[in-house]
C-alpha cells in the first residue's frame, strides 16, 4: 500500500501528471526544529533536470509544508508535505496509450486495478518518491540531532563499470579448493565507507565519489542516451552512528526492513547487506567479525564488519552498509518490437523525457528510505526501553542471562581495525 513504517508512519500520494505529489507523516516527535530548507536540500538532489545525465523534465520540486509545524518546530501532529507537478506533457505518452511499455508498470497496473492513470506511469512513476525523500529528510534531521547518525549513499557502479575497490577481481579466486581468497571488499572500500561524505558524492555529476570511475560512468551513460537506450547501476549506502539494538526479529529483522524499504523504490532489482553475495566466497574463519572491547565505553565492538552492522536482525553498533541494484530504465526511445494492449504485434518508439540511468537521482531516495527505517526502529526500541526502565532491576536471574552493567577492564595492547 502507500504507507510505510510503524511508529514513524509515512503515507505518500500523487501520480506522475496530477496536480501535486507529497506525503503525510504521522508520529514525528514534537519539538524537532524544522524548516522547509531541511527538506528542500534532499528534494533538489533528487529532482530531474540536474545534469545531462538525467531526464530533462524541468521540475523545481519546491516543497510546501502544510501542517504539523509552527515557528520552525514540529508539533507532534501529522506533517503534510506538498510538491506541485509543473512541467507536465501528457501528450508525450500518446504512443503508450496503445502500447504497454515493456518492463514498465503499465500492463501490471491495468491488470491489477482494471483502470490506470492516463500518462507517465501514474503512481509507478519516480515522482512518487518525492514524498519519501521529503519524509526521509525529516527523519534524518531527528536522527542527526538525537544520535549523531549520518547516512551517505553513492553510486558504486554503472553498467559494467565498478568503483575499482568495490569488487574483488575474479582472478583472485584461483581454484575451487583455495580458501586464501581476498576479503569481500577491499580495504580501500571499507575505509571509504567510514569516511565518505555527501560533499564528496555531489562533487561528481554521477554521484560516484571516485573521480576517475565517474568519468567513465559519464561516458557510459551518455553512450546509452545517444543510442536512445538506458543503463542500470548500483547505489551503496552507509549508516554511521546507529545505536545497537535496532531491528525487530524475526519477521522485521533490520536487514529485512531495509530490504523491504529499498526494493520498494522503483526500478530496484537487488539488495545485499554487508559482504553480501561476495561474502559467500569467503570462509567463515575469515568472514567472522571477532569482538573487541568498544573504545571509550562499555560493550563490544567488532574488529571487522562483514555483517554490515546487523547480526540476528539487530544492529550491533557498527556501521550499517548495503548495496541496491537498479535496472536499466524501461522507457527507451529506440523502436522495440512488442505488442499493443489488445495483443496486436507492433513497434513502440516511446516519446517523452526519460532518465538514461536512474542511479545518480536514486542516491537521495536510498538515503531517505534508510532514514525512514532507522527512525521507525529507533522509536520502537525507545518505547521498549522506556517500558523496561519502569521495572525494578533484575536480580533473580543467573548473571549469564543478563547484560553486564559495568564494562570489563581494558586489555593491554588491544587495537580496533
Ligand atoms: C529516480 C528514478 C527515475 C526514474 N526515471 C525513469 C524514467 O525516466 N523512465 C522509466 O521508464 N523509468 C524510470 N524509473 C523507473 C520506473 O519508475 C520503474 O521502472 C517502473 O515504475 C516499473 O517499476 P519496477 O521497475 O520497479 O518494476 C525511474 C526510477 C527512479 C528511482
UniProtKB/TrEMBL annotation:
Catalytic activity of the protein: 5-O-(1-carboxyvinyl)-3-phosphoshikimate = chorismate + phosphate
Record-linked SUPFAM superfamilies: Chorismate synthase, AroC (SSF103263)
Enzyme Commission (EC) number: 4.2.3.5
PROSITE patterns, sorted: CHORISMATE_SYNTHASE_1, CHORISMATE_SYNTHASE_2, CHORISMATE_SYNTHASE_3
Family (UniProt): Belongs to the chorismate synthase family.
Subunit: Homotetramer.
Protein's recorded name: Chorismate synthase
Species annotation: Trametes cubensis
Phylogenetic placement of the source organism: Eukaryota, Fungi, Dikarya, Basidiomycota, Agaricomycotina
